[in-house]
Amino acid sequence: MTIRHLKIFITVAETGSMSAAANRLYLTQPTVSQAIRDLEEHYHVQLFERLHKKLFITEEGQQLLNLALMTVGNFDNLELSMQRFQERIHLRIGSSLTVGTCLMSRVISDLEADYPGMDIYSFVSNTAEIEQKLLRRELDVAVVEGIIESPELTSIPIVEDSLVLVCGKNHDFYQKDTVLASELEGRKFAIREKGSGTRKLFEQYLSSHNIHIQTVWEANCPRTIMNAVIYNNALAVISQRLVKHECIHRSVKVFRYETGEWDRYFKLVYLKRNSDGTDHLWGSGNIKVPSPGIGHLRTVLERYRTLNLPEEIPACIFKNDISQA
Q1: How far, CA to CA in Å, does 101 sit from each of 87, 267, 268?
Q2: Among 48-52, 94-98, 130-134, 319-323, which stretch is predicted with the lowest mean pLDDT?
Q3: Do the Cβ atoms of 269 and 99 come closer than 8 Å?
Q4: Non-local CB neighbours of 227 within 8 Å, separated by 6+ positions
Q5: Are strands 252-257 and 263-271 parallel, antiparallel or unpaired?
Q6: In angstroms, what CA-CA distances link 48 with 30, 64, 71, 78?
Q7: Between helices 29-43 and 3-15, what is the axis angle to 10°?
Q8: What is the structure's pLDDT at 184?
Q9: Which residues contact 298 (CB under 8 A, 6 or more apart)?
Q10: Dist. CA 150–CA 140, nearest whole Å
Q11: pLDDT tens sequence across 249-277
Q12: Which of 80, 165, 198, 304 shows its CA 20 to 30 Å from the CA of 221?
């Protein structure tokens, strides 16, 4: 039996007439009569008695009516709930630790303000773990600073960033306006954990210039790295977007790499859906547009594209004086 059978039965019971039920439901009377016969044959009971051209519900019919009202009511509630669910946008956003620390809270706040019908879940970890969660469909989209390896994912550079060398007030670099690459040799550093995009970029730089450092702190929290710089006299190479507050208060000094070798982008990453590997989100032609939530996220990220630091932060320079190996 179907919900349609039950709804016809309820209407017949309420109107006491096959013809009246048919009029209310915009059905033919034979269709209504057949639905009642189907129910009676299925449950092996008589649902109505006809006396003086009127229908009277039987005791068995009343029991079915009570249950039918409950069943149809629950079904209607289910339909309404799922309709409302479909009308909302559900977006599971991953972000790497640097992005999650310096950017994602403001981005999500903007999303919630601009698109109040959006339900957002946020997960923050290093780039490697975010990539795996995207591949396992545990996240819909991500914003990361690291390199995405999988060919199954589309990666769109969207937000400017750059790594900077950072030292605390008690470090001998603090009195300098220029630091040379050769001066990093043997220095104590606080670095990010394996899987971090920041660490990978810095390690590539060290390897290509044959520079060796001492790793005295290793952490998956940018705040821990910064504390090691401020209180434990370590050096660090971190996102320029993470140092604004400390620079303004002169608790650290930053050195920008003069050649731009440490410049990078935070990237919008999501799963490809086309067999030919084409961009399925902002392509042309017949390429299907996926979740509108991803498009909303990109719109908000565009507001943060430009990398700007306040004028009061001194423009100290990190220079390369070592040829690549």
Answers
A1: 31, 15, 16
A2: 319-323
A3: no
A4: none
A5: unpaired
A6: 16, 11, 20, 29
A7: 110
A8: 95
A9: 156, 158, 268, 281, 282
A10: 15
A11: 888 999 998 888 899 999 999 998 654 44
A12: 304
Name every residue whose Cβ is closer than 8 Å to that of residue 134 and which is 6 or more positions away in sequence. Answer: 94, 141, 142, 150, 153, 269, 270, 271
Tokens 């090691």 locate to: 228
Write the CB contacts of 211 (distance below 8 Å, at least 6 apart in sequence): 181, 182, 184, 185, 205, 322
Q: Which position has the token pair 């479909």?
A: 86
* Dist. CA 95–CA 267, nearest whole Å: 10
Rounded CA-CA distance 101/82 in Å is 35
35 is written with which tokens? 């639905």
Closest Cα to residue 268, out of 296, 287, 289?
A: 296
Residue in the block written with tokens 């190479």: 237
Among 283, 226, 222, CA closest to 252: 226
